[in-house]
Amino acid sequence: MTETKLFNGGCICGAIRYKACGSPVMVAYCHCDDCRKSGGSVVAVLAGFRRDGFEIVNGNPTYFGTTPAVQRSFCNTCGTPLFYENQNFFENIYIHIGSFDQPEKLPPDRHTWVSDRISWHEINDNLTQYEKLSNAGQSESTPPYEKPDRI
């Protein structure tokens, strides 16, 4: 019998809890301006899961629309960034990796929006880099970022 993968998580104060079942469609370092600002860091790491395998089991996140197609959510009590939802990729939900109980079980598999990367933040791994979005998990949808030659 195949074991179902289950990933639990929530905010730092415990007011919001969720679970995601199945394998992630992607786990990405996102370098875009909006992810940096919403997460308060130089890069955000998000794990994308199929929406039909995701459930909020406790609490109600607060939602904020950052663009007409995008909503981000957080805990209104402690401020923990939680979810990224994009109407263009409605079948998936993207979860801030730091909110998982065991984030070490979800290693990143790519870099997205490398075109927005902060210049002093160097990428020193061998993961595929995408200039923009990697189409929410479908890595063949956009060509990998062409790394410039170093001077």
Describe the structure concisely for a colleague.
The protein has 151 residues and is mostly beta strands. It contains one helix and eleven strands. Helix content is 5%, strand content 34%.
What report would you give on this structure?
The chain has 151 residues and is mainly β. The chain has one domain: glutathione-dependent formaldehyde- activating enzyme (gfa) (Alpha-Beta Complex). It contains 1 helix and 11 strands; from the N terminus they run βββαββββββββ. The chain has an 8-stranded mixed β-sheet with strand order 6-7-8-9-4-3-10-11. Strands 1-2-5 form a 3-stranded antiparallel β-sheet, with no helix packed on it. A hairpin with a 4-residue loop joins strand 6 and strand 7. It is globular and about 40 Å long. 34% of the residues are buried.
| CATH architecture annotation name | Alpha-Beta Complex
Number of helices: 1
Global structural class:
mainly beta
What is the strand arrangement across the widest sheet? 6-7-8-9-4-3-10-11
The gross shape turns out to be globular
- Low-pLDDT stretches are 137-151
Largest sheet: 8 strands, mixed
Question: CATH H level: which superfamily?
Answer: glutathione-dependent formaldehyde- activating enzyme (gfa)
Mean pLDDT: 87
The total count of strands amounts to 11
**C-alpha termini separation:** 54 Å
Cα-based radius of gyration, to the nearest Å: 15 Å
What is the beta-strand fraction? 25-35%
Instruction: Write the H/E string, N to C.
Output: EEEHEEEEEEEE
Kindly identify the CATH topology. Answer: glutathione-dependent formaldehyde- activating enzyme (gfa)
Oligomer: single chain
CATH class: Alpha Beta
> What is the helix content?
under 10%
